[in-house]
Design brief:
This protein is mostly helical and 144 residues long. 73% of the residues lie in helices and 0% in strands. Helix 1 (6-33) runs antiparallel to helix 2 (56-68). The longest helix has 28 residues, at 6-33.
Length: 144
């Protein structure tokens, strides 16, 4: 087993939690500023119900947190497969770190600037890393 490939996954988990905190720390004051109160929130309300009420810059953090709950769910089992098969070193380790670095860059860009064309380019680069990791995971498991 090559467990060092799990480190990028652990970093991405931590980063996701940081984004969750950033989301809360920006959303709660914005809700208060707009006159909303959690005590008076409609029953069954969800974060997405705030889209039209809160400023876009506040919503961007929420959008990014949602993104971190989507594609990375493919990343985590991919790196676990690579770790368990002993293929979590070399190019796979470098790609895993690149994926995480790009996802963090994507988060920061989306939360702060959010020009869609640039954000998409960062997302595309991270997706290429993930595709190569997934192909490598398939290759090593078929070779077992």
């Amino acid at each position: 087993m090559s467990l060092q490939i799990l480190a990028p996954g652990a970093v991405l988990i931590l980063w996701s939690l940081i984004m969750l905190m950033w989301l809360a720390l920006s959303r709660l004051p914005a809700m208060k500023n707009s006159g909303m109160d959690l005590k008076n929130a409609p029953r069954g309300g969800r974060g997405q119900d705030l889209e039209s009420t809160l400023p876009p810059q506040v919503n961007w953090k929420s959008h990014n947190y949602t993104h971190l709950m989507e594609q990375p769910t493919i990343f985590y089992p991919t790196i676990i497969i690579l770790a368990l098969t002993g293929a979590g070193t070399g190019i796979n380790l470098a790609l895993a770190w690149a994926y995480v670095g790009l996802r963090i860059a994507h988060s920061l860009y989306q939360a702060l600037i959010n020009v869609t064309s640039v954000r998409f380019a960062i997302f595309l680069a991270s997706t290429v890393c993930l595709v190569v990791l997934a192909i490598n995971a398939v290759r090593v498991t078929l070779a077992l």
